[in-house]
Amino acid sequence: MTTTNPYANATLATLLKDKVIVVTGGNSGIGKAIVERIARLGAKVVIDYRSHSEVTEAMEVEIGELGGCSFGVQADVGKLEDLQRLIDTTVDRFGRLDVMVNNAGIETRASILDTTPEDYDKVLNINLRGVFFATQYAAKQMIAQGGGGRIINISSVHEDWPMPNNTPYCVAKGGVRMLTRTAGVELAAHGVTIVNVGPGAVATPINDSTMHNPELLARLNAAIPMGRMAQPEEVASVVAFLASDAASYITATSIFADGGIMQSSPGL
Ligand code: BGC
User: Fold this and answer.
1) Rounded to two decimals, what is the model's pTM?
2) Which domain holds residue 167?
3) Is 169 labeled as catalytic in the residue annotation?
4) Sorting pLDDT into bands at 50, 70 and 90, what band is 1?
5) Is residue 211 part of a domain?
6) Pocket of ligand 1 (CB under 6 A)
């Protein structure tokens, strides 16, 4: 028996048209590139952000000028009441939630020997607890409205690949790896699919210190089989595909866009 994918001939613009998509941390780095890409493809986008409302406002204007639809919500993913308000505001405005993109994330680089409880809590709160409850709240909304939905967690190669001197970050991303697998299995029966996108090194503010240190940057580039960092748009295009029904059979797993860094080997 052969089955045909009903979406095989559709363009992403057809598939994303009018989909209601929330992007956390949507006014900088990878999140900003995701917002810009999916808004251009016709999605209705909610830009979650914590600071720099002027950047969000400029994005809204620019998206509007291009014929797109977006609006910003100031909400801190580290606070559960903010997360619930983000989803409620989305539903008040657009009537539903089709795709939740949990992108917001932070890191504090330090050896495990020097990591303070405060830094540990800060990283785990945003990068794991926030993603956990955003997934729970989004899934509840999707189940209540009917018709399923999709949750996309922007994880990292470090959900599976150690990064010395960044242990809390790796612990959180490893948690998101199992969150996606476990919740993905649980929620499949409700038509809610969950997938992680694991970028490698991307030219965004989180990597500013590396990008401004030529020696460090050269070492990083040498470790990447493709020889360079990604541009945020190269992650955004993966997310646009995953947000569409063309990715309807993907759940409880991770897709890496890392220039091959996880497989890198000096051939020794
Ligand atoms: C981290 C970066 C790191 C990159 C590749 C990302 O998840 O945020 O600091 O350079 O992974 O190792």
Assistant:
1) 0.96
2) 14-203+232-254
3) yes
4) low
5) no
6) 107, 156-158, 163, 200-201, 206-207
Contact between 82 and 76 (Cβ < 8 Å): yes
State pLDDT tens for residues 179-194. 999 999 999 999 999 9
Query: Average pLDDT, whole number, for the chain?
Result: 96
Tell me how far apart the alpha carbons of residues 39 and 18 are, in angstroms, rounded to a whole number.
9
CATH number of 88's domain: 3.40.50.720
Report which residue type is found at 154: I
* Residue 122 in domain: yes
Please report, as a single letter, which amino acid is at residue 158.
Answer: H
Nearest CA to ligand 1 atom 9: 207
CA of 202 to the centre of ligand 1 (A): 7
pLDDT, tens digit (0-9, with 9 covering 90-100), for 46-63: 999 999 999 999 999 999
- Asked whether residue 20 is domain-assigned, the answer is yes
pLDDT tens-digit profile of 193-216?
A: 999 999 999 999 989 999 999 999
Q: How many domains does the structure of the chain reveal?
A: 1
Range with the poorest average pLDDT among 1-15, 97-111, 158-172: 1-15
| Structural domain contains residue 73 | yes
